[in-house]
Structures are given as C-alpha cells and as structure tokens.
Write a structure and sequence with these properties.
This protein is an alpha/beta fold. It has 2 domains: 11-21 and 270-396, Alpha-Beta Complex (Aspartate Aminotransferase, domain 1), CATH 3.90.1150; 23-268, Aspartate Aminotransferase, domain 2, CATH 3.40.640.10. The protein is 41% helix and 13% strand. The strands form 3 sheets. It has a 7-stranded mixed β-sheet, with helices on both faces. A 3-stranded antiparallel β-sheet has the order 9-10-12. A two-stranded parallel sheet has the order 1-11. Strand 3, helix 4 (114-125) and strand 4 form a beta-alpha-beta unit. Helix 10 (270-291) runs parallel beside helix 14.
Amino acid sequence: MTFPGSGDETIYLDHAATTPVDAEVLAVMLPYFSERYGNPSSVYRHGQEARAALDRARASAARVLGCRPGEILFTSGATEADNLALRGVAWRRRLDGAVGDPPPHVVTTRIEHHAVLHAAEALEEQGFAVSYVPCDGQGVVAVDAVAAEIRPETCLISVMYANNEVGSIQPIADIGALALERGIPLHTDAVQAAGMLPLRVDDLGVDLLALSGHKFYGPKGVGLLYVRQGTPIAYQQAGGGQEGGRRGGTENVPLIVGLAAALEKADWLRDAYATHCAGLRDRLLHGIREAIPEADLNGPFHPAQRLPNNLNVAIPGVQGETVLLSLDMEGVAASAGSACTTGSSEPSHVLRAMGLPEERCRASLRFSVGRDNTAEEIDEAVEVLVETVGRVRELAGSA
C-alpha cells in the first residue's frame, strides 16, 4: 500500500509530536458534534445514541488491544493516563498498607516521557520511593537493570514501549515476564508505538497501557488507559459515575469515537505504514550521511530496534534549536526532541541519560516521518538541511 502526499507546502517531519486527523476519522466524528450530541448518561434516545457510540468505541479499542471492553478507560490523553497509572497504583498500595510499612516503591526509567517522570517525582514528594533505571548508549533499558531495582515493597514497574526521542524499542515482553514472575503490575506508555508496533496486552505482558489519539491520526485531547482486571488501583477523578465509576466527568463522545476509529485504522495499516516509514527514514539517513558525513546517529544502530518512523541525528558545529528555526523558515518542520519540552533551554534528558556529551545533545535533531511523506519530500528536506547547516556554521564561525 502507498500513502499519497498531503499537498501541503510544508514538509512535515515531526509526526512523533502529533499527526493530522485522518479524513475518514474526522467524518466519523462530525455527527457527534451536531445531530448526535446527547449526553451518554441520559436515558432518552439522544443520550442512548451517544451511549451506543461510546460502547462501540470501547469494544473497537479492546479488539486492537486484545482485552475486555471493560478494561478500557477513556481519558483526556496519555498524560492523564500515565499519571493515573502511577499515582493510582502507588496510592492503592499505600491505602491498603499497614502503619509502619515501608513506603510503596515504583521502578521506572530515566528515559520516560515527562508525563511519567514528573508523576514519579510528585510521588517522591508525597513520601513514596522511586528508582530510575539507566539505559545503555543506544537508549535501551536492560531487563536485568530493571530486576536489580525491585524491592519487596515495589508496587509498580513503568517502562515505555518505545522512546519518543530516539525511537528505541524496549524489551517490554521480557520485562512483562519479569513483572509477572515477581507479582508486580507493569505499566507501559505506548504512545509512540501505536500504529507501528503490536499492542496486544497479553503478548506484551502489561497490566496498564497508555495511548494518546493524536499520535495515530486521531484527535487531540483524548486517550485511554488499559487497566487489566484485578490490577489494584485507586482512581483519581471524582465526580459522576462515568466510565464505570472510575473517572468522573461527561465523556467526550466525538473525540472518543475518533480515537477508536483512528486506532482501528492504524492497526489495520500497521505493516504497510511501518514499511513506508522505514523506507523514508532510511532514505533520509542515507541522504544526510552522504552530504554531512560527520553527522552521528543517536539511538539504536540496528533499524529493527528503532521505531520505523524515527531518526535522531547529531550534527557537529550547530545548535539544534537554531537549525530548527532556519528549517521552519524554509518550509521543513522537525524537532529537537519531545514536543512537550520545546522552548526549554535544557538539552534532552533522554540523550543525557544515554551518556552523550552536552555539546552533542544540543546539536541533535529529531525527524519523524508519516503517511503523507514522499521520497521527493525527503530528498528536498535533505537539500534544505544541508544548505541550512552550512549557513548556520558559517554564521557561527565553525564552517
């Protein structure tokens, strides 16, 4: 299967930050903004139409994840889902514990998205214990390193499925086997994996899994948390009895419908999409290396260990943010790392965790390709990048 170009003059190479809403997904959503606007908690026809749409969306997401519909909890996005996973499991352990017990302990990694890292830091401020597992120089976390941090009071392990900055795919199934053996729930932030990697929760061995709709051609502002039946968790959002009493607040039916439609389509297109993206990613890397031989790859060297759409490179003699601004002026959109930290003067915490020098961290760029990108766009982007790097180096006096 081939994916057509978008016709947009911008060469958009930041799909890890967000994706456009698929036209078919938008069409499915639109009626629930207008003629099917009922509240799904209402008993009359309009409300029950909305309730039926909600039920269909939950069942659709459950099919992709290979779980029960009742194990799907819709949220405002992956940030909420990640926070709920960490805070909910940790607080459940504390509430169920006895006076004098050691504080509940969470194991996570140094390369997580800030939705996880900041939630973990907040737990530490509240008296919980957290261990941060290091990664290797390619951004991969070892199973043995996770095992080494487990204590008797460990209540949760949280390891992302694939890294959002360097694309490193983590050994989640092996960590899942470890967690099962030790009787500890495992949470994974699978935001970047959706549409790229298999998501069936039993194969991964996870008990909690977070997704965000806008990463796989669905709408922003909606996500989900899979919670395996029997997982001890204290739900955080009080209010009405929505989501089976687990999350108060009227469900955002149009966005939930869109998320489910986008997830189903992304899963159906997964193999073709991965092949399409990997070809463009490798073409981009080849073009950069030919024109800028000193450019270094950040992350896994083997393509199979990296997300098919991800390319993170360091270009000596430039500042990444400066190059990005120049690329934008020339109609190429890329990033220096996580979209959630754009504007920060601090270099990537992921690249730092990989042990890369400060100068290299600041000279790094992330490109992430998508459905609408073409080979012609990739070649043009390489030309623009080469011209931009030359100009920036000349201005910096380092050419």
